[in-house]
Amino acid sequence: MRVLITGGSGFVGQRLCQQLLTQGHDVQVVSRAPYQVRGRLPKACDIRDSAQAFMDTPPEVLVNLAGESIAAKRWSNSQKETLIRSRIDSTQQLITLCEQLEANGQALPSVMISGSAMGYYGDQGDKVVDETTPPNDEFAHQLCAQWEAAAKPIEAMGVRLAILRIGLVLEAGGGTLQKMLPPFKLGLGGRFGSGAQFMPWIHRDDLVAAIMFLMNESTLSGAFNGSAPHPVTNAEFTKTLAKQLHRPAIFPVPAFVLKAGFGEMSQLLLTGADMRPARLTEAGFTFQYPTLDKALEAIL
């Protein structure tokens, strides 16, 4: 199949491109700077500067992962707008592509897998969270809700839509661990605040496998939690990571320090949700790395 990916040069997208090519799919990548990202992607990827540039070879599957990193900068009003626009604009590109294909009488993709995040639920304390849990209204929820809403019009064109609310993605060389490992390797790691906040996580290979599972299972649509079945608290994550590195983790970072340093963005570090992948599990998806111990052992 021809699979078009936004965010294909990112941490998750790169691995997805590799796996799709391994399984014999044709991979199309949308990037604002094709020449800059070419070195990060397999040579077999067809990289163009817009979704509309693929009108001559219409995709059969859409995977929408593009968006400014939520932790790139402090959340000023302008940065919040950048976070929202980067997600909505990339999603709208795919909607526009489908509208143009439909107007031309060309075949539409059969499915769009569209990204979202655990932030959709907001701070849920220690409540067990599945796909039916009402969200807590804060900026992370507003961001994810607008991202998800931007994808909804594709359903009216008869395209199946599956939304993945993704947890913290773990793998060497990027994501959460890239930022956490340096102090932990020096024995300077510790919990954030009380450490009681939950950290839904997923190994990158399991996330890629979940995307491909949703791509291939034609009866699955709606929202899915993209996280491992055994979330942990920040204190548990800290302890497990330190154990894998054979280092102590005795330097907690007080909540007031994080709030002073990151402002409203400190919510990402001090709040969370005990998010479970209820719908993926019910659909028969099997996690290669269901526990944090197993995931970190494979990574480190």
CATH topology: Rossmann fold
Unreliable segments of 5+ consecutive residues: none
Can you tell me the CATH superfamily?
A: NAD(P)-binding Rossmann-like Domain
- Given the C-alpha coordinates, what overall shape results? globular
Mean pLDDT: 97
Biggest sheet character: 7 strands, parallel
As a percent range, the share of helical residues equals 25-40%
H and E order: EHEHEEHEEHEEHEEHEEHHHEHH
Q: Report the total helices.
A: 11
Domain count: the total is 1
Going by CATH, the architecture would be 3-Layer(aba) Sandwich
How much β-strand is present in the residues?
15-25%
How far the N terminus sits from the C terminus, by CA atoms, comes to: 34 Å
Domain DUF1731: 253-299
Family: Belongs to the NAD(P)-dependent epimerase/dehydratase family. SDR39U1 subfamily.
Domain NAD-dependent epimerase/dehydratase: 3-217
InterPro entries: DUF1731, Epimerase_deHydtase, NAD(P)-bd_dom_sf, SDR39U1
Give a structural overview.
- The structure is a single chain.
- Helix 1 crosses helix 6, helix 3 (77-103) packs parallel to helix 4 (139-151) and helix 7 runs parallel beside helix 11 (292-299).
- Helix content is 39%, strand content 17%.
- Strand 1, helix 1 (11-22) and strand 2 form a beta-alpha-beta unit.
- The strands form four sheets. The protein has a seven-stranded parallel beta sheet with strand order 3-2-1-4-5-7-11, with helices on both faces.
- It contains eleven helices and 13 strands.
- The chain has one domain (2-299): NAD(P)-binding Rossmann-like Domain (Rossmann fold), CATH 3.40.50.720.
- The mean pLDDT is 97.
- The chain has 300 residues and is of the alpha/beta class.
- The protein has helices spanning 11-22, 34-37, 77-103, 139-151, 175-185, 204-216, 234-245, 255-262, 267-270, 278-282, 292-299; strands spanning 2-6, 26-30, 46-48, 61-64, 111-117, 128-129, 160-166, 168-170, 198-199, 201-203, 222-226, 232-233, 274-275.
- Residues 3-217 form the NAD-dependent epimerase/dehydratase domain.
- It comes from Vreelandella alkaliphila.
